[in-house]
Hints:
The structure holds 2 protein chains of 2 kinds. Chain A has a single domain (3-456), classed as Sodium/glucose cotransporter, CATH 1.20.1730. Chain A is built from 21 helices and no strands. Chain A has helices at 3-29, 41-46, 53-64, 67-80, 83-109, 114-119, 124-157, 165-214, 219-230, 248-264, 269-272, 281-312, 315-321, 328-336, 343-382, 385-400, 409-439, 449-471, 477-496, 523-538, 545-557. In chain A, 64% of the residues are buried. Chain B is mostly helical. Chain B has one domain. A two-stranded antiparallel sheet of chain B has the order 1-2. In chain B, a hairpin with a 2-residue loop joins β1 and β2. Chain B starts with 6 loop residues before the first helix and ends with a helix. The chains are: A mainly alpha, B mainly alpha. At the A-B interface, α5, α9, α10, α12 and α17 of A face α1, α2, α3 and α5 of B.
Amino acid sequence: MSGGDQSLILVLFGAVGVATLAITRWAGGGRRVGGGRRGSSEEFFAGGRLFSPLENGFAIAGDHMSAASFLGVSGLVALYGYDGMLYAVGFLAAWVVVLFFVAEPLRNCGRFTLADVAAARLRERPVRIALGTSSVTVSVLYLVAQLVGAGSVVALLLGDPGGAAYTWTVLGVGALMVCYVACGGMRATTWIQIVKAVLLVGGALGLSVLVLLRFGGDLTDLLTSAAEHSGHGAHFLAPGLQYGHSGWAARLDVVSLGLALVLGTAGLPHILARFSTVPTARAARRSVVWSTVLIGGFYLMALVLGTGAAALVGTEAVRRSSPAGNTAVPLLSFELGGGAGSTGGAVLFALVAAVVFATILAVVAGVTLAASAAVAHDLYESSGRRRRQGKAARRQTLQDGTDRRDCGQEAEGGQGSRSEVAVARRAALAVGALAVGVSLPARELNVAFLVGLAFAVAASAHLPVLLFTLFRRRFTTRGAVWAVYGGLLSSMALVALSPVVSGAPRALFPGLDFVCFPLENPGIVSIPFGFLCGWLGTSREHPDEGRYAETEVRSLTGAGAV
Amino acid sequence: MRIDDPWYDSLSMGGSRPGCAPPPGPVRPPGVRTGPVRTGTREAYLTVQSSAAFREVRGRYRSFVWPAGAAFLLWYLAYVALAVSAPGLMAGEVAGVLNVAMVAGLAQFAATFLLTWWYARHARLRRDRLAFELRWRTQDAVRSARTAAREGAR
């Protein structure tokens, strides 16, 4: 790649960065239509709750479609043909679960986080601590996977895989995401996700049209040509290229990951937080319908792009450029623009790189916000909040020389809400620093399993609690706590004992060998285990009928929804 | 987008203030987390829960989502399991370059879109109106229960 191309990409990255910061400034300091007061929790965590279903649908799609799915799914298709489609189907099918069981009840019963739903029915403190801990864990796992992926992809796009580009990307993305969240809260994050979703879907649509035009709109021609240039012939169009030569463990791993993908989306904190930004359950439902259409269309286009990359670039060329296939779409855009040495190719390549950068920024911002909400709204609230607040009030009294407590409950409430937002801002900084700190040395490590792990933890720890809280009359606090810790710890322990951590050449500790669990994704064991824990923990206590009545009535009718 | 949604109107009454009681209720001390079952409202919720109208809404919702959701999940798992365990079967030709695996994969996409559309339609036609009426009735009942409890305490 020439220096001119590189500087064009850098200019576009800069433009994306400036545009997102402008959005943050506009959203953080701009209009307030009917929403919460500036600096209130309602404003910071839910963006004022007045987004329309269409806007939220785009934002959900923007939250969900990571660079990993854009580049990763297309790359897998380019490398392994049909096997890439399994992932696309898994990512999409998850939205049926979200729509049926989670979106509307969550909007009706929750305020900001997942723990709000469970805490309305169960004892607040233990439930909040458990769900807050696992939400932060899921978010940090997901964030590290995104940051490491972002660093590698941007370094590849800049043609500098071994240089300083990785470090600067991780640092830059980390700083930007903390800035969006701390300065703009949910409103800025949402608008960045909307813009990103438009760019990503538009970019994928444009490239797909170019691919189809190249083949005269003939899908059969595209598929046969891809099979020919992949070097696998007809096998390219059928499942089995990726794991066909491996044993049963690799095949079971695909099922395990599929289960985690389809059930995990309904438990991911950054996806669940999106339902608090619309005013009603009906709007939440309609935003999922919009996002399903967008995401489904997007994955269909990603399949076309992966096939196009195999046909036009060739599987071998893709593998030479990146063994994981992440450069399939950028290489394809280079080819579609006119190929080596052409201006069109360089420009299209740079545009795709900019869309990828915007995608990375939007996803990490959403995850950081969800993590900060879990820290401030769940963990901090439950750990001696009142004591600290009392201390703060006394300090204020001493400083001002007036007794604030006389101002009545209104002022106290405002202060509590503001202190929650202040904690959330600091938590965003801390979570960002932690994720960047873990990601920087992880450059050479194979962290691809982290995304699957985040989905598996969400499915094993969060989904049982959500479903039992909403649908099981006999559910109790102990069941919830057991389900969360059972799901969380079993997933983490199984991964620690799996070949991704030790005993394999690509493991985190290739020198050690303490493998007892053969699968890379724990979902197939930990998800049933999480549900089992929730069910077993329940059976001895007596549930509170009145509180269940309240949850059930509110979740279905929307009575008393905030 | 906003005009045809009756629930948007109800929004203007509340939801903007953090830590506040539900719209029609009295002001609850903000910042202080009272349990969700406040004085006197427990019976109100239990009454609504056992009413025929609520049971109807709940029945319609559950009898749709559980069978449809379970069937969809099973169909998805069967698809993934077949793809990993029987690649030979999945490679069988259907028409031209189209094989069984591709038809099954595209059918997954189609099933997702179809169920999404069906659920939204079912909710709009069979649940929304009933649930909306119940919402107001519940909020009225909860408010009068609170008022009664306050007066009883005096």
